[in-house]
Amino acid sequence: MYTISLCMIVKNEEKVLSNCLNSVKNLCDELIIVDTGSTDQTKQIAKKYTDKIFDFEWIDDFSAARNYAFSLATMDYIFWLDADDVLLEEDQQRLAETIKNLDFSVDAVSMPYNIAFDSFGNSTFSFRRNRLIKRINHYKWIGFVHEYLEVFGNIIQSDVAVTHRKLERPAEQSDRNLQIYKKRLQHGEEFTPRDLFYYANELKDHKQYLNAIDYYRTFLNTKKGWKEDEVRACINISECYRSLDNKEQEMEALALSFKYDIPRPEAACRLGDLYLLECLFNKAIIWYKLALEITFDDVEGFWQEAYATWYPNLQLCVCYWELGNIKKSIEHNTAAKHYIPNEPAIKQNELFFQSLDH
């Protein structure tokens, strides 16, 4: 069985680090923690798990810090996490099995990254990241913010999911990435297409919607972005226009996403919502049905489970009721219940439908 180095970069993670390390400490042969300037108890907590704790002077460059952490690894494979990530018990078991059966011909193992959840704990937004990589290949991180690991070779997909448990960050941390981008721009740096996309995301998250739209369009005009980012840019533009209460432009941005790949369930549902708001129920139904036809296998990147399962069914329940088709309305409420059986709205609908029989 091959050996595993866990490599992490941390700063002021005293609230989450123990949870992270407890979930993987028995699966890794060495734990490497690179601290980029903690002022809380992060390093003291890390010392309870490993003596391989190193300092790295922060230079506004996440890739530089991650590459330094990777350079310290000595085992066969490197596994990486952020401090607010954990492996749930079932995923710990899956990772142990993956490591046990790993063949050295494998250069990297990709894993789902679950980053958003509904009130019942079900993942609502996930995408894959290369998590376990062969050390001797010397793969490098690229990008000063929203960095990615440039991996090639024999990459296999695993069902080991990494769960992100994000905590509310202090204002100075939530603003950090935006300020890094702005500094780079002030110094005259030319952004890559990927930088343009993620800078636009930061602007959107900070409610600078018009500026965000400009950068999303600049990104799309390069015609050099990753397909998934191009699709996401269109959906994010639509979100900006929705915040600006411009429904016409919101609809156009959603339709634009179809230019880059097959329709995403989210885009289809958002179009359905716009028609539903206008009481154009037959048109809304077309888009909700389309959302249900698209499967995870059709999509390479980001996946939001709700928009392909319970949400369009619940909206179809509304549409068919408004059109007087009670049978179809009940069918779609029942279909939504299959995914979220404890949802109050579904239970309320059931009680209402039962009352019609009396």
From TrEMBL:
Key words, A-Z: Transferase
Keyword Protein biosynthesis: no
Keyword Transferase among UniProt keywords: yes
Signal sequence residues: none
Glycosyltransferase 2-like domain boundaries: 5-123
GO MF annotations, alphabetized: transferase activity
Pfam short name (any one): Glycos_transf_2
Name listed for the protein in its UniProt record: Glycosyl transferase
Organism: Niallia nealsonii
Biological classification of the source: Bacteria, Bacillati, Bacillota, Bacilli, Bacillales
